[in-house]
Amino acid sequence: MPEFLDFLKHKYAYVAIGEFKPGCFSEAQKLYEKAVSTYSTGFQGAFLLQKPGTDEGIAVIIWDKIDDMEANKSEAHELLLKSMAPLFAKPPVTDFYEVCSEIEGSPI
Questions:
Q1: Half-sphere exposure of 57 toward its Cβ, with a 13 Å CA cutoff?
Q2: Residue span of the structural domain in which 80 resides
Q3: Prediction pTM value
């Protein structure tokens, strides 16, 4: 029965949609990767997407629970985010989503 109850638990995705100042995406990507590397408890994975030919992107970070994101905040993490802030053309739009469906592709 515990496996069935585990199946009913949903993960959560923190999503940030934003645009960086011209030419700043690669620097922001490095800072994003450093920030994500500090995560542990409840962290399930992350994606950084870039619209081709632009400085627009979407960051998706998957968590077991919303509270896990707060639990992973550290001084080092906050410094990295603070370093990233001036790279944005305007503040990103952020929100949490429940992961309702997760489909894995077949291995190649």
A1: 21
A2: 14-96
A3: 0.85
What is the identity of the amino acid at 91?
P
Instruction: Say which residue the tokens 């109850």 belong to.
Output: 5
Q: What is the DSSP string of 17-81?
A: EEEBSTT-HHHHHHHHHHHHTT--TTEEEEEEEE-TTSSEEEEEEEESSHHHHHHT--HHHHHHH
**In the numeric block, which tokens belong to residue 16?**
């940030």
Domain count across the chain: 1
Residue 78's CB is within 10 A of a number of other CB atoms, namely 12
Is 8 domain-assigned? Answer: no
pLDDT, tens digit, 9 for 90 and up, residues 23-70: 999 999 999 999 999 999 999 999 999 999 999 999 999 999 999 988
18-32-70 Cα angle (round to 5): 90
Kindly report the length of the chain.
108
For 28-41, letters b (16+ CB in 10 Å) and e give: bbebbeebbeebee
Residue 46 resides in a domain:
yes
Residue 79 resides in a domain: yes
